[in-house]
Amino acid sequence: MGKKKKSTGERGPILSENERAELSFFMDRLRMQDPRGPSLENCLKSLKQALSRREVLAAALLEALSREGGEVCFRAFCELQGIVRDKRLEKIVRQAAFRFRQKGFDVPRGSAPTPEASTVSLIKAESVKNECLMAASPIHHAFQYAAYVYSKPSAAYGMVVVFVGPAFQCEGLALLHESRRTFRDLVRKGAEKLESRVQEIPLGHLTRVVHDLAALGRIPPDHASDLKGVQKLLHEHCLGDPRPYFLQLWEQKGRGPLREIDEDALIRFLADHPSVIPTHADIPRTTALQAAVKELEGLRGGVLEVPEHIQRERERDRVKDITGRLMSREICRLLGRHWEEYALWLLLDENFSMAETVYRLAEHVSAVTEPGTSRLMARYVELLLLLRFEFLAADLEDQLEEFVKDEIDDEDSQGWKTPSGLYIPGGLIK
């Protein structure tokens, strides 16, 4: 009996044991290549020569390349697909091309090129359509960035997704090779989860966000592998204007110069708008804040009776000391960077007054070098203790009286009383 013809069913070509070993060897060689390295071209030429009369093995390699994906695999596919001319193997090549398209690579439709064809099908400059979108949930202090970016070296698109949580902490970063449709579906679902609109932003701003996250040590180690690819993809898209995008957009919207806002006004703003405080961020650490509450409660529970003004002065000094211990210059920079993104989202949403104040808050906090001497940072700590542990500092109580005096007689509102008897509506601390 003659040998059976090799099957090319749904599972691809059936290879001998030696051919499977060769296939594995070829894939290992390609995995070691840099898509922009000098050795890749020679590697592809030698592969083409080795497979020129072995269409079944070439088809199996094309299938393996399409399943793995990546720039090198796409370059190899473009170089080698012309080898396969047997009509019985055409379906394998078509399926491989389809997988690459699904991963965002621009495979030309129609007949396969001949072996002498160009290795990569370039997209014309005027046909390149990059996208960069942002969605946010200010209530939860969460920001989603997603971009679909064309890479000239690989002649393909890459999809970047970055999720930033409270206090400028990266909670997700990925570089994917998917279709534009998949990109838009992902953006839509993310925005729905955040209950947010989607806003366009320049790629340069996302480039800066990724750079700052890395520089401030806010990207977890398990995202380090994707980080390099994302930085390489975005590096050529830096903003031409070195100023924060907030300032550029503010000017584009014709808003004129930003107002000067002094520290006293920012302190009042924090107490009036506690929702801008990222209470779920673990900075300072929760255990440290709990210890601060016990420390201040102990100060109030002293045996000796002292005049109220002296008690307030002691507590004020202790709050400054606690602020100096719990806060740091690095934490202030993180808060400032977080509020800059918060302000940008408010500006994109055309909440101009709030955006302006939050941006000035971000500027002020970012410039703090000694938190223990900053009245604004002391107020920030006092508000954290109130919002997270319902502990009301004496200084803060005086200011809150202005905001709650109209609601004290509202019997239906749920709240709580301070040790001195001030009734705080529940809505203020939620």
Cα end-to-end separation? 82 Å
| Rg computed from alpha carbons, rounded to a whole number of angstroms | 30 Å
Q: What is the helix tally?
A: 16
The largest sheet, given as strand count, sense and whether it forms a barrel, is: 5 strands, antiparallel
How would you write the strand order of the largest sheet? 4-3-2-1-5
Quick one: overall form? elongated
How much of the sequence is in beta strands? 5-15%
Order of helices and strands: HHHHHEEEEHEHHHHHHHHHHEE
Class by SSE composition: alpha+beta
Q: How helix-rich are the residues, as a percent range?
A: 40-55%
Mean pLDDT: 84
Beta-strand segment tally: 7
Give an overview in words.
By secondary structure, the protein is of the alpha+beta class. It is built from 16 helices and seven strands. The chain has helices at about 15-30, 40-50, 55-70, 70-80, 90-100, 180-195, 205-215, 225-235, 245-250, 265-270, 285-300, 310-325, 330-350, 350-365, 375-390, 395-405; strands spanning about 130-135, 140-150, 155-165, 170-175, 200, 415, 425. The strands form two sheets. Strands 4-3-2-1-5 form a five-stranded antiparallel β-sheet, sandwiched between helices. The longest helix has 20 residues, at about 330-350. The termini are far apart. The model is unreliable at about 1-10, about 110-120 and about 405-415 (pLDDT under 50).
